[in-house]
Design the sequence.
């Protein structure tokens, strides 16, 4: 399926940042400045930003890895590999979100591009969820 050796693909994928990304840091800085305290990479689901006492889980979704409807473009090469990889990503995220909701968590998803385009809007979405709980 993949046209790269396992060792090469593993090395490439391990170099991709999965936490403490620029969009996450932007959002965390806004939340902290507003006096909201949170946990990062929390629990077995590795919630990007969590408010455990209020059971609010925030995920900052990268436009490529989470198939953003506005920005995602399927890579032109190695199409079979990438189709399977993206389908697995979406399925894993759906399962994670369902598990959290079943245990009473409120899940908020924020697109990477929304934090770059309008960080205040993304912050307000989270702040209003926080105030409601």
Sequence:
């Amino acid at each position: 399926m993949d046209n790269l050796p396992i060792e090469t693909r593993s090395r490439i994928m391990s170099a991709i940042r999965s936490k403490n990304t620029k969009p996450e840091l932007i959002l965390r800085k806004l939340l902290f400045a507003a006096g909201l305290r949170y946990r990062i990479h929390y629990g077995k689901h590795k919630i990007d930003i969590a408010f455990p006492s209020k059971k609010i889980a925030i995920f900052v979704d990268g436009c490529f890895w989470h198939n953003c409807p506005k920005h995602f473009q399927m890579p032109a090469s190695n199409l079979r590999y990438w189709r399977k990889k993206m389908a697995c990503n979406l399925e894993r995220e759906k399962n994670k979100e369902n598990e959290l909701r079943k245990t009473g968590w409120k899940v908020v998803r924020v697109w990477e591009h929304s934090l770059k385009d309008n960080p205040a809007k993304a912050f307000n979405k989270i702040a209003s969820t926080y105030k409601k709980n």
